[in-house]
Design brief:
This protein is an alpha/beta fold. The protein has helices at residues 14-25, 60-73, 135-138, 154-163, 183-190, 286-307, and strands at residues 4-10, 30-34, 77-80, 83-88, 93-97, 100-109, 113-115, 131-132, 147-150, 170-173, 195-198, 201-208, 212-219, 225-229, 232-235, 239-241, 272-274. The chain binds NADP nicotinamide-adenine-dinucleotide phosphate.
Amino acid sequence: MAERYDLAIIGAGAAGLAAAQYGARANLKTLVIEEMAHGGQALLIDTLENYPGIVEPISGYDLAERMRAQAENFGAQFLAASVHAVKKAEGYFVLETSEGAVESLTVVVATGAQHRHLEIPGEDAFIGKGVSYCATCDGPFFKGRKMLVVGGGDAACDEAMYLSKLTSQIVMIHRRDRFRAQKALAARVLANPSIEVRFNTVAREIRGDSKVRSVVLENLQTHEIYEEPFDAVFVFIGSNPRIDFLKDTGIALDEAGYIITDCTMQSSIPGLFAVGDVRATPFRQIVTAAADGAIAAHAASMYIDELKGQAYH
Ligand code: NAP
């Protein structure tokens, strides 16, 4: 019989690693499955300065290394593999992976979400050098500078409002003639004197040398193409949660495709939890992801106690 784990965690970003640490420390037989490097989105962060208690900024890579070491010290095991499907059996789950089947009493999905990219020349080359997908993470590095915000949804409007506390020079472009965002939020952006909104406008190219210097913009109505100086480009055009391997499970998702959980991080499938960016949540940060992971591991432990008839009532 295959070795059965108590807790199988899919994804080794901050949420998954925190779940691993809490799970292993609670004596759960814990396995973390990751197809790429551990660290997730945190690996993109060069200078992490807003994680509580980290006074001297460290890199996202260093934090991920520490989180992995901590989980390993408590006994968590790691498997480099891709998960293709999750199936519920009688009282446990079977994960089909590129390295074979894994059985576990509970599953924590911590696969994150991928920011959509504009897919224009210069975008990938300037990530971390002026191109960003997170205002809270990178906005403070461009205090008082000229920023371009791309997008028309709630995230773009929220983040533009946040950035307007850091600079009075924001140009916000959206490809349509009005915002997709909720009316109240859109109205706040339009009334903000630090944000110049240009509708029917798209970015065609990001230019610079060692960092972003300018962006080529196009007015879709007049077809005018012009180059304008910018120090930073913040892209908020939605993101795609990584949940392909759950497509046959019937798990409840919100309108944007994120996994809906209760306050213990349990999804609509008992014993299957979701944490971090893949979860329907209003704020996506390393600290919130880590907290999700801790809560899910604790809830998984209680679920297993119930399963084994060992719950303390
Ligand atoms: P979203 O609602 O999907 O909006 C994405 C925006 O980016 C849309 O305006 C879209 O334009 C535009 N866009 C997409 N691809 C583009 C491209 N290639 N080039 C230029 N523009 C492009 O995504 P989101 O704003 O990240 O929000 C995701 C979910 O989280 C939503 O359900 C949202 O309500 C929720 N959320 C809520 C809050 C809040 O309540 N405060 C804050 C953040 C997020 P079109 O309009 O033309 O499609």
